[in-house]
Amino acid sequence: MGKISRKNWTLIWVLGMAGQICWNIENSWFNNFVYDKIAPDPSIVSWMVGVSAAVTTFCTFLIGTWGDRAGKRKPFICAGYILWGLFTFLFGVTEKLPRDPLFIAASAVVIADAVMSFFGSMGNDSGFSAWTTDISDESNRGKLGGVLAVMPVFATIFGAVVSGALIEKMDFFAFFALMGGLVAAVGVLALFTLEDAPTLKPKRDERGFWHQFLEVFNWRTVTGNRELFWVFLVMTVYFIGFNVYFPYITIYFVNYLGYDYGMTGVIQGVGLLAASLTTIPAARFIDRGHPAEVIFAALGANTVGLLLVSVTQALPVLLVGVFGAGVGYILVLQSLTAWMKNLYPEEQRGQFEGIKQIFFVCVPMIVGPAIAARVINRWGVETVVNGEPGMVPAPNLFAISAALTVLTVLPLIVARKLSRRRLFGEGGK
Fold this sequence. Notes:
The chain has helices at about 5-40, 40-70, 75-90, 100-135, 140-195, 210-215, 220-225, 225-245, 250-255, 260-275, 280-285, 290-310, 315-345, 350-380, 395-405, 410-425, and strands at about 380-385, 390. By secondary structure, the chain is an all-alpha fold. It has a single domain, classed as MFS general substrate transporter like domains (Growth Hormone, Chain: A, Up-down Bundle). It has a two-stranded antiparallel ribbon.
């Protein structure tokens, strides 16, 4: 494959950052919108995150299969981003719905988020992610993984600092309109600049679309890709722990610690920006065949960081805690991204992006927030948000997340053993 061209690197950054900013808006600010405009109820957030995760996963399978059969990613990227932006704007309309009975408004935000997530998955998860695999190879996926891993961090920093300031100035509806327009504009830009990889060819199962769609669920797919599925399990366990705290972290800083959106952005932004610098040395270890070792180190930093957040309200210690959790998140995602892309079957890259979504999005984003909702409702703090009584997270949420994250070590041991065997022979290295 050779080097990734300068044009493609530019598109990776533009499409990737626009997509991650939009995902950050959904994963963080949609939740805050629910607390501020609908009701301070963690169960609504849990349902919203879980349903959108299921929809996202189905869409990635659907569009991934379609893209593999067509031998094209560009149409799905462009159409997905344009519609993604449109429905991000329309999500804000749910603010105008009556809240009595609450079921109507709660159902509306769940459905609106699911529709937006469908098109986000179409453009980003199935289209863009498969395209980055098409245009890369094993010689540059450590660097690519690092770039893709820091994008969510930069998007989180943008979301915490810039988005927080914009929402305080213009409120949620105008903010969603502005950000949705940005994402749609990037989709239009891709129409005129993005090209599919020249090596991408149609991979058609002559028995039809649905046979090809379902073929990936065959047990032979698992047995033929053992190392990849153990890597997927590493991802699932880690991101269950991650999704226990992440959808609620801004709610915790604002409604429990008492910071405003701007200061919350500074705390998260400074810690995560510093953490992003670790991707540079990590890329060298990953490209030399040591992603598991990077993940072991990342898990240590992640656990310590979350425990620090759970035991203090002192600003300097919170910054260190966010830094540690950020290092964990960035390096785990960077390592797993490169590791998985090197193992995807060439003829099924789009479909395997769908399988990844089960382990990366569907299971973690259903199980993690469900655990969090139970923890918050049982051990959280009663409060009033905009005149509505409800529950907000307490520090124990981060300690529980840290405990769950440690369990990632179990599948990681097996995945590392299989990786050593593949790279260095039966005895490993």
